[in-house]
Amino acid sequence: MRAVDVLVVGAGPAGCVAAWEAAAAGAGDVLLIERDRAIGAPVRCAEGVGSAGLREFLNPDGADWVSRRISRVILIAPDDTQVALAPGDVGYVLDRTRFEPVLAEEAARAGATIRISTEAVGIERADGAGGGRWRVRLRGPGGEETVGARVVIGADGVETMIGRWAGLETRVAARDMESCAQYVVGNIAFDPDAIYLHFGPTVAPGGYAWIFPKGVGVANVGLGVVTLRGDGRTVRQYLDDYIARHFPGGTVIGLTVGGVISGVTVKRTVADGVILAGDAAHMINPLSGGGIVNAMKAGRLAGRHAARAIREGDTSARNLQAYHDEWMRLLGDAHQKYYRLKETINKFDDAFLNGLARTANRIPDEKRSLGRVIGSALVHHPSLLPIAAQLFL
Amino acid sequence: MPQAVQHDIAVVDNDLCDSCGLCMPLCPPEAIHMTRRGLVVDATTCTGCEKCIAPCPVGALAMTDARR
User: Residue A199 and residue A194: Cα distance in Å, rounded?
Assistant: First the structure.
């Protein structure tokens, strides 16, 4: 039986960076497996990413995995009033089909082995010395094979099986699941340097609609909806209605669907010889729904702590707990605050949001930062003060 | 002999399903599994709670009478 030190399941942003970091930190034999035939595809994502977070990992300047550099954010109220925030170094819309392969190549250069079309179909404890802590059954083009691993990093997304098999609670309440649908739409008019976020319970209850440019005249146009708050339509029907209303002349050239978990990090992200990272551990910003940079940051921590635990000869949950604690300090605790804020924002009705937009547009263009929009909202809508206080609790 | 299922269960229409996996963590008894041929609901563990039905982005899940 083949034995590795670290087995990483899932070659998304979390898994690729985990393998990269584990190999670079001297974890030994690192194997990264991906169920799909291609790393980076199919895309299940709006592909937007913040500039600062991205630059911790890769340099986007001139990179072919960038679809569009973004310098503006435009918030849209339910009545279509636009609030343009002051321009700045906002971020990028990626081409995930090219982005993940670059991360995987970095992992390989650091020494990790990568296998595509290979999925984990079961794991069992193996507390023997030679084979490592887990025996993982893999299924790939060559049939089934069992691999021993000291640490298994579950970066296997919202549908995580590694978490289930390791006895970690990764189920999601319906109120914390945003159902998303997105079309790539061509032949439409919009500012190709801006991302648009369209809010309101009639537009996208529990979430928002987005327009993320892929190029001039072509964009990812999508919607996230908590269907518990919806009116019975599927999210694809919400999106069809949105496109019909806002982009009736657009050409739909692609569809993607998926779930964004808008809760908070699972209570336990580690078990004996197991670490969960990224969507598998619900490490998504519950306010923005953004998960790419979070996943990469979690992957980096996961790889680092896996290497440390192996070096120390102790891959128990107790010794891996430092990973969980470090994640919570880095972002997990903040997500709990964002979650409470989102709960409050979800109570706003269309009229209230339309009023906020008009208030925000009284701020001079060049000074209209998100902070000032919130500040102005507080001055003009004192009923918001208890909500603002929640941000700092 | 397994007990006959006495309630409706969820079924996946694999012509509509995109295998996004959104329904899997929503399932309390973890009865939904991803296979090479698409998602499958385990009829013996599905409790008929319907939590997976509405969130499916493309409406690929529906309740059916398991006794038929």
Answer: 16
> Which two structure tokens, joined as six digits, stand for A308?
């440390």
Q: CB under 8 Å, gap of 24 or more: what pairs does B30-38 form?
A: B30/A164, B30/A171, B34/A159, B38/B12, B38/B14
How far apart CA A227 and CA B22 sit, in angstroms, is: 12
Spatial separation of the C-alpha atoms in residues A310 and A319, rounded to whole Å:
10
Cis peptide before B25 (omega within 30 of 0): no
What SS3 class is residue A121?
strand
A181 with B59: Cβ contact below 8 A: no
Given CB atoms, is B29 within the 8 Å cutoff of chain A? Answer: no
Question: B51: helix, coil or strand?
Answer: coil
CA-based nearest residue in chain A for residue B54: A227
Q: Do A159 and B56 touch (CB under 8 A)?
A: no
d(CA A289, CA A263): 10
Residue in chain A nearest B24 by alpha carbon: A159
Contact list, A256 vs chain B (CB under 8 Å): 18
What is the residue-averaged pLDDT of chain A? 94
Whole-number pLDDT of residue A389: 62
Cα separation of the two ends of chain B? 18
Q: How many CA atoms lie within 13 A of A59 on its CB side?
A: 2
Are A102 and A167 contained in the same domain? yes
Q: What is the pLDDT of residues A124-133, one digit of tens each?
A: 998 765 556 8
One domain, residues A16 and A118: yes
Question: Is A172 within 8 Å of B28 when comparing Cβ atoms?
Answer: no
Task: Give how many domains chain A has, as a whole number.
Answer: 3
Looking at the DSSP assignment, which residues form a beta bridge with residue A180?
A224, A258
Token look-up 């199919």 returns A42
Query: Which residues in chain B have their CB less than 8 angstroms from residue A160's CB?
Result: 25
**Nearest residue in B to A232, CA atom:** B54
A148 and A280 belong to one structural domain: yes
Q: Which domain holds residue A386?
A: 344-391
Determine the average pLDDT of the residues in B33-52.
Answer: 94
Q: What are phi and psi of A374, to 5 degrees?
A: -65, -45
**B57/A181 CB distance under 8 A:** yes
Per-residue pLDDT tens digits for A246-256? 999 999 999 99
User: Does the distance separating the beta carbons of A235 and B30 come in below 8 Å?
Assistant: no
Is the Cβ–Cβ distance between A273 and A133 less than 8 Å?
A: yes
Q: What are phi and psi of B57, to 5 degrees?
A: -60, -30
A84 in the same domain as A185: yes
Q: What is the pLDDT of residues A62-93, one digit of tens each?
A: 999 999 999 999 999 999 999 999 999 999 99
**Which residues are CB-neighbours of B2 under 8 A, at least 6 positions away?**
B44
